[in-house]
# Entry
Amino acid sequence: MLPFLVQELARRIGERVEIALDETYIEGVLSAVSGDLITVVSTSGYAAGPVTNIAVDAINYISFPQD
Amino acid sequence: MGIGPAITGGVFSLLNSAMDDLLAINTQQHCHNHNHHHNHQHKPHKPHKHPRRRHRRNPSSPANPPTIPAPIIPATIRGLLSDLLNEQIQITTPFTTLTGTVISVEMDYVAMVEPGGELYFVRLDKINTVTRVTRGV
# Structure
């Protein structure tokens, strides 16, 4: 059976992600995936910023920027 | 039908055509009725007759090769993207427009790679439009 997005994201915890919602763009490190919720720790420079919990249904797309 | 005896030319022709119409309707109704009766009476026989005729006709036209199958037109965004696997496409979402090559179509998202090499997972529910980008410009 083909994977759902959450299943794929669960395998990528710890990676840098850029997540686009309908009107918001969130950059950070993917820190947790559970059910319909994913958690991203926003990063600005070296400091860990606020933790954002995102409903999977709200995601437009996720990209994995190349370092 | 109580048509009066004293009828002048123009009116007569009008009435005549009306009569014809009435007759036509009547006969049609009769035909319909007959058809209904036939349908009810001979229901079990009809299905047997038609397949036999078709079987006899088909071998008599071997010149007709198997026709070119009609193109299967995808009915869903998922099906459409599956058809566009390894093609360069443009996807619009409420947030923005993305361009890249489709590398796989999964249950609820499509994976695509930007020309720069960045990987994108786009949720199918959020895709507004899909456009194939012609190559070789």
